[in-house]
Specification:
The protein is an alpha+beta fold. The chain is built from 2 helices and 6 strands, in the order βββαβαββ. The protein starts with a strand and ends with a strand.
Length: 124
């Protein structure tokens, strides 16, 4: 099992946009966030996994001083956080080449002292 603490703010995958010229493009914030995850994993020697993969992750958001609730029940949605994370992990130099190999995901989002993504990658 590989474990990483990615010191980036969790970000949702934004929907593709349509430019005035009719071409579809990925929003810059999404590209930057995916690149940040990919770069972190490369610097920390993520090992390539062949076959089925299990992912466990915690998206930790710095608690605003005005928030008293325990659970992070506001946007962004956890499925959009997962989409961006999985797209950031997959790469020919990433943990796996395509997220179709992910057979199980366990995820949560919560408040903490700082923005962070905790990631466990396990071959099944």
């Amino acid at each position: 099992m590989q474990y990483f603490e990615i010191p980036l703010a969790p970000a949702p995958k934004e929907r593709p946009r349509l430019a005035k010229n009719g071409k579809v493009f990925t929003p810059k914030k999404t590209k930057v966030a995916e690149h940040g995850i990919r770069s972190f994993l490369r610097r920390h020697n993520v090992k390539k996994i062949e076959g089925a993969v299990e992912i466990k992750c915690s998206f930790i958001f710095k608690r605003p001083t005005t928030v008293n609730r325990k659970d992070h029940t506001i946007r962004p949605d956890i499925d959009n956080l997962l989409k961006l994370l999985l797209d950031g992990i997959q790469d020919k130099f990433g943990a796996f080449e395509d997220d179709k190999v992910v057979t199980r995901i366990i995820a949560d989002k919560q408040y903490g002292e700082r923005n962070l993504i905790k990631l466990w990658i396990k071959q099944v």
